């Protein structure tokens, strides 16, 4: 049994754009999804998350078929570039929603939420409202919510793109630290070559709605570092 993520000839058409993804994503690794703008990176992630459903093909995750299951039924958490937090709820409540949408929390759950906030460097931030947080603090809160869910798969859609360069590096370090602790399967859409170099184990290159290659990071970086590279537009 392959316990990573499988997109088995997963196809759909959105508007006039056709997508046809066929790939395997290793369990326990951080896989970057790279490729030019409009190639289909977010669409691939949306298929894995269940926000889009394929018109044909199948999707497997941690050994079970998930092709038609709802996003909430899939063994995963998602962190987006923006809009991760409910603006009218404090940080504690935003994180708590990762455990219980109805906010039925045991003392143990409350402890886990405080612990997650501490691990992402937001100790004492529980009563703060999202509007009073910096961009990096908001992303940390989003990570804390993903952490308390304890799902084996973490999907990140350009999670650090709106942050400045220094903060991007610190958030990458945080991602690596959390990944070492949880050994979860991470898929991260990114345009940023340096981010790929810093955090990814493997790289899936998406072009024209298809998976063009899937390889170890070192091989990917070597290929595109070469002056003979034929794909200057890609990260
Ligand atoms: N719901 C939709 N209806 C019509 N076209 C869509 C829809 N969703 C995506 N597309 C088109 O599919 C293509 C791929 O979109 P997608 O967002 O997956 O690309 P991407 O690689 O993530 O791009 P970027 O790097 O710019 O975010 C784009 O041309 C986009 O306009």
Radius of gyration computed on alpha carbons? 18 Å
Q: Which sheet architecture does the biggest sheet show?
A: 6 strands, mixed
Structural class: alpha/beta
Total beta strands: 10
Can you list the ligands bound to this structure?
A: adenosine-5'-triphosphate
Identify the overall geometry.
globular
Q: What is the helix/strand order?
A: EEEHEEEHHHEHEHEEH
Beta-strand percentage range = 25-35%
Helix content: 25-40%
Topology:
Elements (H helix, E strand, L loop, with lengths): L4 E10 L2 E9 L4 E5 L6 H9 L6 E6 L2 E2 L10 E4 L11 H6 L10 H13 L15 H15 L3 E5 L7 H18 L2 E5 L3 H7 L2 E6 L2 E7 H9 L10
Parallel strand pairs: 3-8, 3-9, 6-7, 7-8
Antiparallel strand pairs: 1-2, 1-4, 4-5, 9-10
Helix pairs in contact: 3-4, 4-5
The structure holds adenosine-5'-triphosphate.
Short description:
The chain is α/β, with parallel strands linked by helices and 235 residues long. Helix content is 33%, strand content 25%.
Q: Can you offer a commentary on this structure?
A:
- The protein is an alpha/beta fold.
- The protein has two domains: 1-75 and 154-204 and 218-225, P-loop containing nucleotide triphosphate hydrolases (Rossmann fold, 3-Layer(aba) Sandwich); 85-150.
- The chain is 33% helix and 25% strand.
- The chain is built from seven helices and ten strands.
- The chain has helices at 41-49, 91-96, 107-119, 135-149, 165-182, 193-199, 217-225, and strands at residues 5-14, 17-25, 30-34, 56-61, 64-65, 76-79, 153-157, 185-189, 202-207, 210-216.
- It has a six-stranded mixed β-sheet with strand order 6-7-8-3-9-10, with helices on both faces. It has a four-stranded antiparallel β-sheet with strand order 2-1-4-5, with helices on one face.
- Strand 1 (5-14) and strand 2 (17-25) form a beta hairpin.
- Helix 3 (107-119) crosses helix 4 and helix 4 runs parallel beside helix 5 (165-182).
- It is globular.
- The two termini are 32 Å apart.
- The mean pLDDT is 90.
- Bound molecules: adenosine-5'-triphosphate.
């Amino acid at each position: 049994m392959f316990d990573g993520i499988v997109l088995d000839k997963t196809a759909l058409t959105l508007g006039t754009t056709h997508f046809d993804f066929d790939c395997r994503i290793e369990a326990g690794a951080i896989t970057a999804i790279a490729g030019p703008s409009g190639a289909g990176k977010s669409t691939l992630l949306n298929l894995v998350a269940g926000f889009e459903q394929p018109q044909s093909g199948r999707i497997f995750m941690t050994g079970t078929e998930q092709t038609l299951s709802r996003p909430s039924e899939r063994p995963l958490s998602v962190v987006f570039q923006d809009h991760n937090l409910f603006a009218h709820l404090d940080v504690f409540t935003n994180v708590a929603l990762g455990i219980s949408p109805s906010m039925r929390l045991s003392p143990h759950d409350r402890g886990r939420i405080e612990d997650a906030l501490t691990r992402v460097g937001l100790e004492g931030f529980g009563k703060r409202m999202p509007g009073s947080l910096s961009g990096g603090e908001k992303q940390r809160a989003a990570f804390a919510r993903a952490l308390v869910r304890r799902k084996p798969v973490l999907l990140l859609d350009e999670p650090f793109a709106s942050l400045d360069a220094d903060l991007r590096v610190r958030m990458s370090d945080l991602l690596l630290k959390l990944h070492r602790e949880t050994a979860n399967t991470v898929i991260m859409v990114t345009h940023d070559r340096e981010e790929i170099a810093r955090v990814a184990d493997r790289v899936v290159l998406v072009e024209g709605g298809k998976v063009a290659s899937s390889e170890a990071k070192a091989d990917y970086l070597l290929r595109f570092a070469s002056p003979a590279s034929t794909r200057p537009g890609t990260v």
